[in-house]
């Protein structure tokens, strides 16, 4: 009754598979991005795309069972992505200061 | 509401394709933000409003902004765009696209293996999510916070520039101070 | 009393152990006391044991411990005493003791004093193990032990590479013989199932018919071993070079004891030779050929010790001749007298060489009979015994016995006798050549120093033995004291003169007369040729035929040259071919292969991020395919 704002029923009847399919498509687009781009920043962005897709998969699965666990996992992925991005960008800055380029192929001292 | 899902899905896919094709970093970022917003709409439609809100606030709002700041700091300029165009020759796309297609194919195959999809239509409110966070997943919260702490410290340390000129400057400053005191 | 037997080889072994452990840190007196004393105690114990044996009059076995028991093969460290090993043991211990005593003064200035006595004691221990062993494996242990000590002692002055070369040559050549012997042991064990000598001989007699292939093989292979150790044809090349060692070593090892190990082996396993007539004949033929060959070579040597070395080869040829015609006891008798007079000759030669500051060439010596009287008389007595001058010396009785038995030994007898006679003639010539050139004529080098007590006593004792040692076996027509052969008749079969005599007593007397005459003729020839009218000999030598012959004979009938061309050089050529070591190629190949693999795989480590990401993607795609579709 007075539970606060009544949220209109805005949930769609989308089968889980379509949600997961979307996640799969986004994930593979992210994979293409990681493998094809040479600019480090774009590689990082593609990784973000992949993480986002993974989170989408969790949400879709959670919505299937109407359980909050999916969202919780998504929130954790979010925290992870935040930490990873900050560290990754700091590394990119260091990399740029050492080798004045953003070419990922320049970081090949581990060769051989 | 189902239409919203499909439209948002298409937008997300198109925006992501733009991200990975784009040569200008800032443009790519903006496309990525669009993609994230579309995914937030998908979340909402799937009955996860809390996740949708967080997606917008944290992912699109904080992480992408961080990206923007760093790209501005790097100040790459027009030369970088030209270089990107050079690097993105069409033949560069073949192998990654192939590999990715294989992966996608496998995933789709596995998805359509199971029983027919059953649509569910209930929303999971933030209240439920919160209840779980303070219930079974309490330790997970603590772990996440530790992860963030580690990320913070790591980012601070790794982001530092080596201050080779700082020390002698401090020395002269201190000497000057002592001079004035005498 | 008889159970002291195991201590006879044990004491020299203790001496070796002490000297080895203390490694030269003891004072000289102590080293000499331990080195000589251990062999001395061994000699005394040998006498006691011999006395006990003579009163018991039957063979005695003492098992000290079980050496190994593997599968069906049992071997023990056991000592066997019968008449043959008593004789060997007494001669070895006694002569060794005298030589050790001599060495105490002879080697006194050498810095390797302790090492010398350690090796000598080890040698005596090994030799005693060899002669007392009751099974062929233990005998082989002693065999190898004496070979090792021979190597160590020939190369005693190791700083000169020539000595090391001579030592290696001795070792390698005897090794050829040793290998044949080991294969012979394998044959014996495989077919007869045991290596203990007495049971082995019995089983051989029961299971193998006369002339069977296995008996021939076994006897032939053991003969190969004996040829190596005793420096007979074709393995005689190492003995002249072995004179690089100190003179007492030459006296002990390369005259009196080690080189007679082959003779002992054949006498011990005589049953096998009786079962293999072709090999038995071969022994006699080899003996005859060797004694002639070595006599010719000895005649053309200028180094005093090399004369004596070839003389040893020749005299052992006589022993082989005796063994080959079936006169087993005569061979052992000659071994005993030879030990006495050859050791005497070497020790006297040692005195001469040392007092003349290591001068070996006889033509640079001269007129020493008044300067070195003791050496002169010792050498003279030894030479007389070697040349078998009639009646007054031991060598006469033993050589005479051999020649007699040879004549009696069937169809080939007279031919072998002829070879022996010619050899005796040459022996007299070459040894008295040495006597006359070294001790008569003008003095070229003045000797320095004094001969002390420790050198004099062994020389005197051995001189007495070389004179009187033969009186234990006097033939019938001269009085008849067959004590020696009677002693050994319990062990060794009867010689031809008793089994199938073809010569009457009168003929025996005539043959002996011929031999004695030839010996004295040889002395006369040597006197004329080298003392009275040396110009004649010089002309003979300098004639074209003479030069080539002399060079040929002096080089030991070219055997060294032959072995060098036929064996050494092809082997060296093969080794050069295989310089990069084909076998090693496989091992190096494994290493190369793994390195090639590494090089190939390290190309996958490009260091590129995208490459690694692609690897992850590819791997996960593959795994998913495997998981889902397989």
Summary keywords:
heterotrimer; A: 112 residues; mainly alpha; 3 helices; C: 630 residues; two-stranded antiparallel ribbon; 27 helices
Describe the structure.
The complex is a heterotrimer of chains A (112), B (182) and C (630). Chain A is 69% helix and 0% strand. By secondary structure, chain A is mainly alpha-helical. In chain A, helix 1 (16-36) runs antiparallel to helix 2 and helix 2 (40-65) packs antiparallel against helix 3. Chain A is elongated. With 182 residues, chain B is an all-alpha fold. Chain B has two domains: 1-123, Four Helix Bundle (Hemerythrin (Met), subunit A) (Up-down Bundle); 125-182. Helices cover 77% and strands 0% of the residues of chain B. Chain B contains eight helices and no strands. Chain B has helices spanning 2-21, 25-45, 49-74, 78-87, 94-111, 126-133, 138-158, 166-181. In chain B, helix 1 (2-21) packs antiparallel against helix 2 (25-45) and helix 2 runs antiparallel to helix 3 (49-74). Chain B is extended. The N and C termini of chain B lie far apart (80 Å). The mean pLDDT of chain B is 85. Chain C is mostly helical. Chain C is 73% helix and 4% strand. Chain C has helices at residues 7-22, 28-56, 83-106, 113-132, 136-154, 161-192, 197-207, 213-229, 238-241, 247-256, 261-268, 270-274, 277-299, 304-325, 328-355, 373-387, 394-407, 413-439, 453-468, 483-488, 496-499, 505-532, 534-542, 544-554, 559-577, 582-602, 609-629, and strands spanning 60-70, 73-81, 473-474, 481-482. The mean pLDDT of chain C is 89. The chains are: A mainly alpha (112), B mainly alpha (182), C mainly alpha (630). At the A-B interface, helix 1, helix 2 and helix 3 of A face helix 1, helix 2, helix 3, helix 4 and helix 5 of B.
Give a nutshell description of this structure:
Chain A is an all-alpha fold and 112 residues long.
Helix content of chain B: over 70%
Summarize the biggest pleated sheet of chain C: 2 strands, antiparallel
Q: What best-fitting shape of chain B do the alpha-carbon axes yield?
A: extended
Assembly status: heterotrimer
Uncertain segments of chain B: none
| Strand order, largest beta sheet of chain C | 1-2
Distance between the termini of chain C: 88 Å
CATH class of the largest domain in chain B: Mainly Alpha
Tell me, rounded to a whole number, the average pLDDT of chain B. Answer: 85
């Amino acid at each position: 009754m007075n539970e606060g704002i009544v949220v209109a029923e805005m949930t769609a009847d989308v089968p889980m598979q379509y949600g997961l399919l979307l996640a799969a498509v986004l994930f593979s687009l992210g994979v293409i991005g990681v493998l094809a781009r040479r600019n480090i920043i774009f590689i990082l962005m593609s990784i973000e795309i992949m993480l986002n897709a993974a989170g989408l998969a969790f949400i879709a699965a959670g919505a299937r069972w109407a359980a909050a666990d999916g969202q919780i996992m998504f929130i954790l992925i979010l925290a992870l992505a935040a930490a990873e991005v900050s560290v990754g960008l700091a590394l990119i800055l260091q990399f740029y200061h050492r080798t004045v380029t953003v070419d990922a192929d320049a970081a090949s001292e581990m060769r051989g | 509401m189902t239409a919203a899902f499909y439209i948002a899905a298409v937008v997300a896919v198109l925006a992501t394709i733009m991200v990975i094709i784009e040569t200008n970093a800032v443009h790519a970022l903006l496309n990525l933000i669009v993609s994230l917003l579309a995914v937030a709409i998908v979340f909402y439609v799937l009955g996860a409003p809390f996740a949708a809100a967080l997606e917008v606030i944290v992912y699109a709002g904080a992480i992408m902004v961080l990206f923007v700041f760093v790209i501005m700091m790097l100040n790459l300029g027009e030369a970088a765009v030209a270089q990107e165009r050079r690097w993105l020759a069409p033949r560069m796309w073949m192998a990654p696209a192939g590999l990715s297609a294989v992966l996608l194919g496998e995933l789709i195959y596995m998805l359509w293996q199971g029983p027919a999809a059953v649509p569910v239509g209930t929303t999971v409110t933030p209240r439920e999510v919160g209840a779980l966070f303070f219930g079974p997943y309490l330790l997970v919260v603590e772990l996440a916070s530790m992860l963030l702490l580690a990320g913070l410290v790591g980012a601070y340390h790794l982001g530092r520039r080596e201050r080779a000129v700082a020390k002698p400057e401090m020395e002269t400053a201190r000497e000057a101070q002592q001079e004035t005191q005498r | 009393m008889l159970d002291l037997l195991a201590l006879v080889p044990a004491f020299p072994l203790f001496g070796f152990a002490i000297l080895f452990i203390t490694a030269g840190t003891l004072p000289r007196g102590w080293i000499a006391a331990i080195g000589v004393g251990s062999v001395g105690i061994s000699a005394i114990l040998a006498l006691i044991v011999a006395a006990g044996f003579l009163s018991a009059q039957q063979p005695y076995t003492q098992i000290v411990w079980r050496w190994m028991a593997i599968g069906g093969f049992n071997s023990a460290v056991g000592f066997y005493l019968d008449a043959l090993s008593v004789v060997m043991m007494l001669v070895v211990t006694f002569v060794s003791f005298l030589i050790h005593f001599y060495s105490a003064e002879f080697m006194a200035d050498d810095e390797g004093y302790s090492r010398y006595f350690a090796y000598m004691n080890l040698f005596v221990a090994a030799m005693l193990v060899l002669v007392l062993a009751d099974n062929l494996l233990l005998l082989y242990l002693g065999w190898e032990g004496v070979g090792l000590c021979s190597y160590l002692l020939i190369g005693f002055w190791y700083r000169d590479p020539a000595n090391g070369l001579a030592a290696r040559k001795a070792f390698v050549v005897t090794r050829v013989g040793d290998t044949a012997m080991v294969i012979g042991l394998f044959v014996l064990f495989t077919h007869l199932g045991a290596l203990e000598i007495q049971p082995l001989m019995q089983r051989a007699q029961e299971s193998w018919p006369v002339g069977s292939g296995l008996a021939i093989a076994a006897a032939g292979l053991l003969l190969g071993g004996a040829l190596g150790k005793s420096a007979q044809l074709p393995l005689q090349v190492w003995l002249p070079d072995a004179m690089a060692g100190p003179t007492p070593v030459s006296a002990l090892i390369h005259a009196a004891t080690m080189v007679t190990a082959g003779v002992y082996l054949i006498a011990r396993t005589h049953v096998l030779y009786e079962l293999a007539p072709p090999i038995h004949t071969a022994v006699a033929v080899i003996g005859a050929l060797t004694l002639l060959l070595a006599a010719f070579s000895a005649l053309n040597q200028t180094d005093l010790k090399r004369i004596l070395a070839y003389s040893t080869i020749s005299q052992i040829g006589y022993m082989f001749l005796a063994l080959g015609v079936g006169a087993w006891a005569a061979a052992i008798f000659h071994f005993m007298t030879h030990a006495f007079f050859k050791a005497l000759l070497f020790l006297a030669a040692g005195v001469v060489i040392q007092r003349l500051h290591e001068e070996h060439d006889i033509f640079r010596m001269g007129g020493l009979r008044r300067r070195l009287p003791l050496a002169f008389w010792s050498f003279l007595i030894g030479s007389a015994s070697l040349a078998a001058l009639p009646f007054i010396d031991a060598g006469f009785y033993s050589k005479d016995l051999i020649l007699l038995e040879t004549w009696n030994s069937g169809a080939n007898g007279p031919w072998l006798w002829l070879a022996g006679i010619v050899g005796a003639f040459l022996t007299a010539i070459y040894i008295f050549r040495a006597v006359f050139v070294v001790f008569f004529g003008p003095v070229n080098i003045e000797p320095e120093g004094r001969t002390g007590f420790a050198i004099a006593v062994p020389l005197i004792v051995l001189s007495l033995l070389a004179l009187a040692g033969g009186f234990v076996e006097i033939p019938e027509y001269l009085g008849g004291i067959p004590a020696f052969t009677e002693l050994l008749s319990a062990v060794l079969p009867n010689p031809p003169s008793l089994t199938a005599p073809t010569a009457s007593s009168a003929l025996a007397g005539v043959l002996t007369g011929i031999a004695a005459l030839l010996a004295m003729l040889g002395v006369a020839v040597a006197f004329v040729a080298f003392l009275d009218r040396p110009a004649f000999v010089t002309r003979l030598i300098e004639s074209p035929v003479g030069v080539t012959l002399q060079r040929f004979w002096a080089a030991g009938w070219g055997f060294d040259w032959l072995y060098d061309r036929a064996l050494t050089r092809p082997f060296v050529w093969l080794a050069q071919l295989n310089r990069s070591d084909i076998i090693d190629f496989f091992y190096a190949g494994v290493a190369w292969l793994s390195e090639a693999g590494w090089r190939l795989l390290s190309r996958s480590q490009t260091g590129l991020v995208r490459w690694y990401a692609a690897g992850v993607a590819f791997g996960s795609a593959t795994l998913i395919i495997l998981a889902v579709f397989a």
